[in-house]
């Protein structure tokens, strides 16, 4: 081989390295596109399967409006839960941790229980508006959860060093306290009031109002804008605190911003449909497994799209079986099994 050809040819390892990197990047974008197509198909199938045969009738228009709000709620919850779980795991550096461990679900149930316990004997109409998914109830519950979680973050992370493990430990303790308080007050309720609290224990997309969807959409879009502004700093945070600081990232400031975004997204999704503890764990780890990477430009959209596919597909399958309301129970059961699998196979990191 001539000497000039040898000097101009790149090393063989570099060629294979570039080929491998380009192949991985192409495969990951294919996964994103396929997930997007399947998610759109699942939403379209959910809407079309619930419409009456007579197009243009009053029943058809009513069903289209109801199913459209149902589909929008699925998309908002999927994006909120998927994005919040992925960036929460980025901060904590652990794949089995979810924002639910910080006590959001327990605080939501405690709010519902306290509202019924203290207000329903005096004004059933007011309590009905607060717990039935109205705008006032949604904003009130979201505000309480955001204020509680943000106060916790600023209190524990206000020092010089960010101690995520202490934050998680305090979050778990608060979660246990909220659940214990909820159980105590639920035992004091009469059977009719307890049934109203019991409805709030399980996630449901039924009867979501348009103004509530708009408010939740504003919160989710604002959270996505902040995540987009953080950009590649999220990928640097995956390296850990010391490497991130060495690369010029203000680790403490970014951590607090991420946790505040997580509190807004989780509070909004929980106030919209109710608690879904393990849903984020399922979609986030499924995204990692499909993509083979933790880079956020892939994992964030894929986790959200997998959430849409799971919720819309699950609603259709369980609806065909006549047990549509059991979707949250199935999600919690599957998520619990996945949690044990990750724990026993030491795949938390």
Notes on the protein architecture:
The N and C termini lie far apart (48 Å). α3 packs parallel to α9, α3 packs across α13 and α9 runs antiparallel to α12 (251-273). The chain is an all-alpha fold and 349 residues long. Mean pLDDT is 79; it is low at 1-9. 78% of the residues lie in helices and 0% in strands.
Features:
349 residues; mainly alpha; disordered N terminus
Summarize the structure.
The protein is built from 15 helices and no strands. It has helices at 3-8, 12-50, 58-92, 104-119, 124-131, 135-156, 164-187, 191-200, 210-230, 233-237, 241-246, 251-273, 279-291, 296-321, 327-344.
Radius of gyration: 23 Å
Q: Which series of helices and strands comes N to C?
A: HHHHHHHHHHHHHHH
Got a strand count?
0
Distance between the termini: 48 Å
Unreliable runs: 1-9
Broad shape: globular
Q: Provide the structure class.
A: mainly alpha
Task: Give the oligomeric state.
Answer: single chain
Give the strand content: under 5%
Biggest sheet layout: none
Q: Tally the helices: what do you get?
A: 15
Blueprint of the fold:
Layout: H1 3-8, H2 12-50, H3 58-92, H4 104-119, H5 124-131, H6 135-156, H7 164-187, H8 191-200, H9 210-230, H10 233-237, H11 241-246, H12 251-273, H13 279-291, H14 296-321, H15 327-344
Helix pairs in contact: 2-3, 2-14, 3-9, 3-12, 3-13, 3-14, 4-5, 4-7, 4-8, 6-12, 9-12, 13-14
């Amino acid at each position: 081989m001539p000497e000039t050809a040898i000097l101009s040819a790149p090393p063989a390892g570099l060629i294979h390295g570039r080929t491998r990197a380009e192949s991985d990047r192409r495969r990951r974008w294919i996964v994103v596109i396929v997930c997007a197509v399947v998610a759109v198909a699942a939403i379209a199938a959910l809407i079309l399967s619930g419409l009456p045969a007579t197009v243009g009738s009053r029943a058809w228009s009513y069903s289209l409006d109801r199913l459209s709000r149902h589909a929008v709620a699925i998309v908002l919850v999927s994006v909120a839960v998927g994005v919040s779980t992925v960036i929460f795991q980025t901060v904590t550096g652990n794949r089995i941790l979810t924002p639910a461990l910080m006590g959001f679900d327990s605080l939501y149930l405690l709010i519902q229980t306290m509202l019924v316990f203290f207000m329903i004997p005096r004004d059933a109409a007011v309590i009905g508006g607060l717990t039935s998914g109205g705008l006032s109830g949604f904003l009130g519950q979201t505000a309480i959860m955001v204020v509680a979680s943000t106060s916790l973050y600023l209190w524990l992370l206000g020092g010089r060093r960010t101690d995520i493990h202490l934050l998680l430990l305090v979050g778990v303790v608060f979660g246990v306290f909220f659940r214990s308080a909820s159980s105590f007050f639920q035992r004091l309720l009469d059977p009719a009031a307890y049934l109203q609290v019991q409805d709030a224990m399980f996630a449901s997309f039924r009867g979501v109002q348009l103004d509530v969807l708009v408010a939740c959409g504003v919160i989710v879009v604002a959270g996505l804008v902040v995540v987009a502004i953080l950009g590649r700093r999220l990928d640097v945070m995956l390296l850990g605190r010391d490497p991130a600081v060495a690369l010029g990232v203000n680790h403490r400031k970014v951590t607090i911003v991420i946790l505040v975004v997580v509190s807004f997204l989780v509070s909004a999704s929980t106030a919209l449909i109710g608690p879904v503890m393990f849903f984020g764990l399922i979609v986030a780890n499924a995204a990692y497994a499909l993509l083979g990477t933790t880079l956020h430009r892939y994992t964030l959209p894929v986790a959200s799209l997998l959430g849409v596919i799971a919720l819309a597909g699950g609603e259709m399958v369980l609806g065909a079986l006549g047990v549509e309301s059991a979707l949250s129970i199935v999600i919690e059961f599957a998520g619990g099994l996945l949690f044990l699998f990750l724990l026993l196979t030491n795949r938390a990191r």
